[in-house]
Structures are given as structure tokens and as C-alpha cells.
Design brief:
Helix content is about 45%, strand content about 5%. It is mainly alpha-helical. The chain has a two-stranded parallel ribbon. The protein is elongated and about 35 Å long.
Length: about 80
């Protein structure tokens, strides 16, 4: 995973500072992202980064049917990897 993230950083294709999330999706095949980070949304939907199948993004910015508990989880920065 670290090696894949390093490659992503060198290629400078990501708009977000979340190369670890993109690397994880590429390696694991995960294609579902719950996030309110718009730059990460663009990366996750970028065909050059996530393909076969494409990534699907959910956000409280776009879907108002999430509960306030879901919104708190999406906004909780302590769940993010510290660099």
C-alpha cells in the first residue's frame, strides 16, 4: 500500500491530499466512498485513478437523507489518517 501511495504521489494525478485512500481503493478493489471531501470525490471518480469498475461516491453534501449521526461521522477528522 505504501509503495502504491508513493507512486501516486510521484505521478501527481491526485487533486486531493488523500493518496492513501486512492491507493487503498486501487489495491483492494473498494469502489464505494462516503466522504464530504470534494477534491477526494474528483479523484475517486477519475477514470485514470479508479476504473473497472468505476468508483461511487456518497456525501451529505449531495444526499440530505443521511441522519445527523452519519453527517457527524463524515465530518469526524479523527477517523482520517494523520500524516
Amino acid at each position: 500500500m505504501d509503495k502504491r501511495e508513493e507512486i501516486l504521489l510521484q505521478e501527481e494525478r491526485c487533486r486531493s491530499n488523500d493518496t492513501h485512500v486512492i491507493a487503498l481503493a486501487q489495491i483492494s478493489g473498494a469502489r464505494l466512498l462516503y466522504s464530504n471531501d470534494m477534491a477526494l470525490h474528483k479523484d475517486f471518480r477519475n477514470k485514470r485513478l479508479i476504473d473497472k469498475p468505476r468508483g461511487k461516491v456518497y456525501s451529505t453534501n449531495q444526499r440530505k437523507d443521511f441522519t445527523s449521526g452519519h453527517a457527524r461521522l463524515l465530518n469526524d477528522r479523527s477517523l482520517c489518517r494523520n500524516r
